[in-house]
Amino acid sequence: GLTSQNTPKSGDEEVDIIRLFNYFKKGFVSFFKKIGSLFGYFIQLIILLKKNWIIVSVLSVFGAIYGAVINPLLEGTEIKYYEMTVRSSALSNLELYAFANEVKNKKASSANPKSEGIALAKELGIISLSIEPVKRDEDAVTNYFEQIESNKLRGDTDTLYFKDFKLKEHKNKMADSDYAIQKLKIKAKETKTNTKIMQEKLINYLNNLPGVKADQEIRNLALETYEKGVIRSIDNIDSIMVARKYINKQEVAAGGSQMVFNTANRENVERDMLRSYEIFSKKLYGIQKEKALYPEPINIVANLRSAKEENVIVNPTIHFALLGFL
């Protein structure tokens, strides 16, 4: 009867519960074994340090002295840290990252010592240059619509990619160089060159690179052509509105049975024209804003200023002390 039908099912459930319990039991045992082994390694390290504390202490002190005194002497002078923020196009950013990589590898055997970039880095005492993007949502949205514009030129806009925009997903697809705002972090020897001169020489060098200059010229030409077209459209709408205003006065003066129909039709047309006028005005604002933000390929957002070291590991004294300890 019912008892005989339910018994096998009940037995299966009990077996599943026992298996699940054993699975968790093995997991807990494995977890605590790993914790125990890590704790054992820690105890061994403490015993090792206790036995050799004199050697470890001497090496740590020597590392600290090397970082604080000997390393600066070998470098030639005191080390300074600077930060600067710039705004630039994606292509200009590629040149920016390439320059940072060139500075990083300036002592490599493959580096060209006669390179203008390496020569400038040596002149300014730059030891290292790192670049980090400032990842603003605004720039991710701008990058998205720039892709739509470039696809429009190819006649390819009816894709799910452009219909279903998700900011987070799009940001994950962007490279660091795609962001307009970039922060430069510079490590340099202290020289007689002040920060203003250092900034000017860096920006002048970058803005006069052939690829960067060509990109800026193409951008400016495109914006100027676009701006002329938008201004022409706004002027045409102004002219049509003036002409319609004159015609409307003539119709009112003449009167007639069509006046009510003409008035309704006139309001619809004028509403459409005002909407178009607003759209073109916003486009003009966007173009003029773009030209104002990018007068040069690479533009200063925040001037070059002295900065603190990011963390204690970067500090040469602590850095070499830890190396000595290890």
Structural commentary:
This protein is α+β, with helices and mostly antiparallel strands and 326 residues long. Helix content is 70%, strand content 11%. It contains 11 helices and 4 strands. The protein has a 4-stranded antiparallel sheet, covered by helices on one side. It starts with a helix and ends with a helix. 11% of the residues are buried.
Q: Rough shape?
A: flat
Helix content: 55-70%
Mean pLDDT, nearest integer? 77
Runs in which pLDDT lies below 50 for 5 or more consecutive residues are 320-325
**Percent of residues in beta strands?**
5-15%
Show the helix and strand layout:
Layout: H1 2-51, H2 53-75, E1 79-88, H3 90-104, H4 116-124, E2 126-133, H5 137-153, H6 160-163, H7 167-173, E3 181-189, H8 195-207, H9 210-254, H10 259-293, E4 298-306, H11 316-325
Antiparallel strand pairs: 1-3, 1-4, 2-3
Quick take:
With about 325 residues, this protein is an alpha+beta fold. The chain is about 70% helix and about 10% strand.
Keywords for this entry:
about 325 residues, four-stranded antiparallel sheet, 4 strands, flat
